[in-house]
Amino acid sequence: MGALRDGYVRMYADDEGSEFLGGASSIKWLEASVSLGPRRFFLLDGQWYEIDAHYLENHYARVARILEAPPSLDLPAWSVTWAERDYNDWVPLNREGYVCLDRRSIRGGLHRRSGVEVCDLLGPGNELVHVKRAHGSAPLSHLFSQGLVAAEALLNSPDVRARFTAAVREYGRGRTVPEDFTPKKIVFAILLKDGEHLSPETLFPFSQVTLAHTARTLERQGIAVEVIGINASASQSAPLITARFPRAAPPYGATFAESLRR
After folding, report:
1. 25-38 pLDDT tens trace
2. Fewer CB within 10 Å: N-end or C-end of the chain?
3. pLDDT of amino acid 127
4. Could you tell me if 64 and 200 are in contact, meaning their C-beta atoms sit under 8 angstroms apart?
5. What whole-number distance in Å separates Cα of residue 191 and Cα of residue 49?
6. How confident is the model at residue 49 (pLDDT cuts 50, 70, 90)?
7. pLDDT confidence of 248, banded at 50, 70, 90?
8. What's CA 203's distance to the chain center, in Å?
């Protein structure tokens, strides 16, 4: 452990190692879970945490119910060489009824400055689909929190609802949603460790706690929660998109001048 704490991993943009991007202590790249008798310990971001066994067991039942439910959406496989934006662009080309809204933040309510990403994909039944490829707890905790924030923004802000429905009209190729749209179902679509089967046994313990909390909060507001595991496929070229969104698209609702400044 001492060597891991003293070590440092650096990332570079080029093969020569001249364009430094950033880095972190070696131990922050690792996650682990260890049982000592009835006690459960987890290593996350370089720190050890203990979660009460009964607390985790109570969440396990809710998580198992969610993960073991049959999927309501038929999402295509994800090429192991694709980034998340490639996959989100790919889905509407291979499945009818989907709209890609990835990187389209919506301004309004409590999110007037930076905006909120309501979903990566709008499903054929108006499901809000949030997509993530994850090798650890942190990306999934962010994913579940993103779904909760997006739902609450739509429920509580008329501005967010108006701008979201406008975004669907603009990018949906004839697709529309009601002006008073509020979500009835949120789907978390996850590629876990390059295609590992998603189950209560494979989902990271910290992520189970976050998912259980998110599902409980959303279900109290009448929003169903579903989690779908995405299968991995062999390497293939990224989809050719003739009108791809820019990597840093301005939030929907930004003024023209604000868009130029970004």
Report:
1. 776 666 666 777 76
2. N
3. 98
4. yes
5. 26
6. low
7. very low
8. 14
CA distance 8 to 25: 4
Among candidate residues 130, 137, 140, 151, the one with its CA nearest the CA of residue 217: 151
Structure tokens at 81: 């060489």
Task: Give the amino acid at 69.
Answer: A
> What is the 3-state secondary structure of the chain?
CHHHHHCEEEEECCCCCCCEEEEEEHHHHCCEEEEECCEEEEEECCEEEEECHHHHHHHHHHHHHHHHCCCCCCCCCEECCCCHHHHHHHHHHHCCCCEECCCCCECCHHHCCCCECCCCEECCCCCEEEEEEECCHHHHHHHHHHHHHHHHHHHHCHHHHHHHHHHHHHHCCCCCCCCCCCCCEEEEEEEECCCCCCCCCCCCHHHHHHHHHHHHHHHHCCCEEEEEECCEECCCCCCCCCCCCCCCCCCECCCHHHHHHC
The CA-atom distances, in angstroms, between 73 and each of 106, 161, 183, 226 are 25, 24, 16, 10
Look up residue 53 and give its two tokens. Answer: 């066994």
Q: Could you tell me whether strands 39-44 and 32-36 are parallel, antiparallel, or unpaired per DSSP bridges?
A: antiparallel
Instruction: Give dist(CA 174, CA 171) in Å, integer.
Output: 8
**Whole-number pLDDT of residue 13:** 62
